[in-house]
Design a protein that fits this description.
It is built from one helix and eight strands, in the order H-E-E-E-E-E-E-E-E. It is mainly beta. The protein has one domain: Immunoglobulin-like (Sandwich), CATH 2.60.40. A four-stranded antiparallel β-sheet has the order 1-6-5-4, with no helix packed on it. A four-stranded antiparallel β-sheet has the order 2-3-8-7, with no helix packed on it. Strand 2 (29-34) and strand 3 (37-43) form a beta hairpin. It is elongated.
C-alpha cells in the first residue's frame, strides 16, 4: 500500500530527531498537518502490532519497534523520535497499524501556535 501523495513539509523535516537504530537511507515516514491535527505515517513492514510501541512525552512522539524471527535468527528494530512545534492534545492521540503502515494522529489544541519567541524583522 502506497502512502498518500502529499509532500513532506520541509518545516517538519527539521523536527525529527535523528535517533534510529535501523538506518534505511530513505524517508520512511510522512508527516503533515490537516484538519486541526498532525498525521504521521510510518512504514513498518514486517512488524506485528504488538511489536510496536508509540509513546508521547513532553512534545515528543517516540516510535519504536522490535521483531525477532527465531526461525531465521533475524532481529529487526526501528526507533525514531518526532518533536512537534504546537501543543498536542495528548489524551486524544491515536494510532493504527494496517498493511505495514503505522498511522498516528495527534490533534492540535485549538488556538495553539508554534512555541517560541517572535522576532521582529527589520527593514
Amino acid at each position: 500500500m502506497a502512502l498518500p501523495d502529499r509532500p513532506v513539509n520541509s518545516w517538519f523535516q527539521g523536527m525529527d530527531l535523528p535517533s534510529r537504530l535501523l538506518e534505511t537511507g530513505r524517508n520512511d515516514y510522512e508527516l503533515y498537518e490537516e484538519d486541526g491535527e498532525f498525521v504521521l505515517s510510518v512504514e513498518l513492514p514486517g512488524f506485528d502490532p504488538e511489536d510496536i510501541d508509540v509513546t508521547w512525552h513532553e512534545g515528543v512522539l517516540n516510535v519504536a519497534a522490535e521483531h525477532e524471527d527465531d526461525s531465521r535468527g533475524e532481529r529487526k528494530t526501528y526507533h525514531r523520535r518526532f518533536r512537534f512545534p504546537k501543543d498536542v492534545d495528548e489524551d486524544a492521540v491515536g494510532a493504527a497499524y494496517q498493511n505495514g503502515i503505522l498511522e498516528v494522529t495527534l490533534p492540535i489544541f485549538e488556538e495553539s501556535t508554534a512555541r517560541g519567541t517572535t522576532i521582529e524583522v527589520e527593514h
